[in-house]
């Protein structure tokens, strides 16, 4: 019995281990790859692969390979062994019988086995670590993997608590709302489970939380990378990471987005702009007859020779945007939500450019346009929209006389409430033109003005010292109408900000030049903004515009419930008289 146990517990046998139970006796063609005699028969890799490997043999082999007792066969180099599958036998006893008759302490048999090339794999060359990994694999790899995932999730939760506090804290809840709003919850969960270092890196860089107000003031995300960089600004890098890794609003898949740089991708930008210009269509003739007005600004400008309305690109309202407006409308009708409105107007120097003097596009070509300046068109559009916005605001606030308005260029300025009664006077005295285009400066003023008013009147909103004002349950939604003439220098940062705001619904009206690639390139970027954010609506107008048709489209986006209809839009008292406005200057 001692001989039988020794033959199957590892070669050379030292002291029979009574605690080790040998594996089931194998047949003639199936040998245990751990027992030494068996390895004499299993020299080829194919034979080893089909051998029956048992955990008991592995434990026995591991214990004996690490035993401090001397092993006379430890110096044998398996690489020098004969490459034959079956070595010649030196006796008439079959190999299977030899395994049962080999003495447990016979040095002669050991020498015979070594001489014939029958030996285990080199125990000194084979590292103990590999046996440990092999043994742990047979103990159950799936359970170990699940334990590792749970450990990574626990570490990720600890990192988030260290940064945001407990799950009951307002900052932690704000971060979770931001994950849902940006549709990045599944992606952050994936990184926490399988890429903990990447998760920690993006957490420490602020990708998982709103933009701090200090970063907006210091333009932390708006500084330019070196010219050879793939990204233009840090805000662009963050924005495209969220767009490419988050879920789309409609759940559809899309090709990976990449930014276009005017210096690197000039040809692609011009090509896309020309493709968009090719989609321009004439206005509906029947509708145009009803909506055209002598008060349309291009008819009052004596510099403009043409009196035909410009062709326009049909604006697209995406399904996700329609669904978001319907949900807001249902909440308003049921009385569980309310809507407030504000205006944000671009008054930068580019708004005053005279199209008759020529405007240079991204291709370096100067183009001349027969149309009014952008600021004159915006003035008319704002005046017309106030006729419809003020009565709707007075339904909730009877004492309100106008619409809160903010202008922006290099800075944002709250100019009070614009009214229809004193519009011309207020516009001349309060609106200051000139400067760059930094929409985030105006957005911060809008946000602070709105939250301060809501907090003072109804106690809504919570001010966070790092991230600024944050919404609270029951706070009315803001419907913001923005007029601008091109892509702001911090447009990526603004888009990144809007992506995480669920309390604001934004309608962007882009005004620009007719047949200008520069204008259409900005329109393409804003179309992408509207496509990936259902809280953003986009309308493009350029050239000689039918103003009342534009106002109808704008109001249907600003008001999901009870927008002005045909009869209200065409009221004679809401129309503007034909007049020649004075020329504007940025100085």
Annotation keywords:
single chain, 587 residues, 6-stranded mixed beta sheet, vWFA_dom_sf, 12 strands, alpha/beta, Rossmann fold, 24 helices, two-stranded antiparallel ribbon, disordered N terminus
Q: Count the strands?
A: 12
User: What is the top-level CATH class of the largest domain?
Assistant: Alpha Beta
- SS element count, helices: 24
Name the structural class. Answer: alpha/beta
Low-confidence stretches: 1-30, 35-43, 46-56, 64-76, 80-121
Total domain count = 2
**Separation, N- and C-terminal Cα atoms:** 109 Å
Q: Look at the structure and name the CATH superfamily of the largest domain.
A: von Willebrand factor, type A domain
Rg over alpha carbons: 38 Å
Helicity level, as a percent range?
40-55%
Largest sheet, in brief, is:
6 strands, mixed
**What is the fold named in CATH at topology level of the largest domain?**
Rossmann fold
Roughly what fraction of the amino acids lie in strands?
5-15%
Strand order of the largest sheet: 7-6-3-10-11-12
Mean pLDDT value: 81
Shape: globular
Annotated CATH architecture of the largest domain? 3-Layer(aba) Sandwich
Protein name: VWFA domain-containing protein
InterPro entries: vWFA_dom_sf
Region (Disordered): 1-28, 83-108
Organism: Bifiguratus adelaidae
């Amino acid at each position: 019995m001692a001989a039988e146990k020794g033959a199957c517990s590892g070669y050379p046998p030292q002291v029979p281990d009574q605690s080790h139970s040998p594996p089931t006796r194998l047949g003639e063609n199936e040998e245990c790859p751990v027992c030494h005699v068996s390895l004499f028969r299993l020299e080829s890799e194919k034979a080893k692969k089909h051998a029956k490997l048992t955990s008991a043999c592995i434990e026995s082999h591991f214990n004996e390979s690490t035993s401090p007792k001397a092993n006379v066969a430890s110096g044998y180099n398996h690489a020098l062994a004969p490459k034959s599958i079956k070595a010649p036998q030196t006796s008439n006893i079959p190999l299977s019988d030899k395994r049962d008759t080999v003495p447990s302490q016979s040095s002669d048999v050991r020498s015979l086995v070594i001489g014939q090339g029958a030996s285990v794999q080199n125990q000194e060359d084979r590292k103990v670590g590999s046996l440990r990994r092999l043994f742990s694999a047979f103990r159950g790899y799936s359970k170990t993997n699940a334990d590792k995932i749970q450990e990574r999730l626990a570490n990720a939760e600890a990192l988030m608590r260290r940064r945001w506090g407990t799950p009951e804290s307002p900052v932690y809840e704000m971060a979770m709302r931001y994950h849902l709003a940006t549709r990045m919850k599944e992606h952050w969960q994936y990184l926490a489970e399988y890429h903990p270092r990447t998760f920690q890196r993006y957490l420490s860089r602020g990708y998982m939380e709103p933009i701090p107000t200090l970063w907006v003031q210091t333009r932390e995300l708006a500084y330019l990378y070196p010219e050879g960089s793939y990204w233009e600004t840090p805000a662009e890098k963050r924005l495209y990471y969220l767009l490419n890794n988050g879920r789309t609003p409609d759940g559809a898949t899309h090709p990976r987005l990449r930014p276009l740089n005017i210096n690197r991708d000039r040809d692609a930008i011009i090509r896309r702009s020309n493709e968009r210009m090719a989609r321009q269509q004439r206005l509906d003739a029947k509708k145009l007859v009803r909506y055209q007005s002598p008060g349309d600004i291009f008819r009052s400008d004596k510099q403009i020779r043409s009196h035909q309305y410009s062709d326009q690109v049909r604006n697209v309202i995406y399904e996700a945007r329609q669904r978001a407006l319907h949900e807001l409308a249902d909440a308003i009708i049921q009385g569980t939500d309310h809507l407030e409105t504000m205006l944000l107007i671009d008054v930068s120097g580019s708004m005053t450019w005279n199209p008759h003097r020529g405007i240079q596009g991204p291709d370096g070509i100067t183009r001349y346009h027969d149309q009014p300046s952008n600021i004159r068109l915006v003035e008319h559009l704002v005046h017309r929209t106030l006729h419809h916005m003020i009565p709707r605001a007075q339904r909730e606030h009877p004492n309100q006389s106008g619409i809160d308005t903010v202008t922006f260029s290099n800075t944002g300025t709250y100019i009070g409430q614009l009214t229809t009664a004193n519009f011309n006077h207020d516009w001349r005295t309060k609106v200051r033109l000139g400067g760059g285009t930094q929409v985030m400066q105006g957005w911060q003023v809008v946000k602070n003005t709105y939250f301060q008013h809501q907090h003072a009147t109804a106690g809504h909103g919570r001010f966070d010292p790092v991230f600024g004002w944050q919404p609270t349950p029951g706070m009315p939604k803001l419907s913001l109408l923005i007029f601008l003439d091109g892509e702001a220098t911090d447009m990526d940062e603004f888009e990144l900000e809007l992506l995480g705001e669920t309390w604001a619904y934004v309608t962007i009206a882009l005004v620009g030049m007719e047949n200008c690639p520069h204008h259409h390139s900005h329109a393409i970027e804003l179309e992408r903004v509207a496509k990936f954010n259902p809280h953003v609506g986009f309308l493009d107008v350029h050239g000689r515009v039918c103003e009342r048709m534009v106002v109808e489209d704008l109001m249907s986006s600003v008001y999901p419930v009870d927008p002005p209809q045909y009869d209200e839009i065409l009221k004679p008292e809401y129309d503007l008289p034909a007049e020649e406005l004075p020329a504007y200057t940025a100085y």
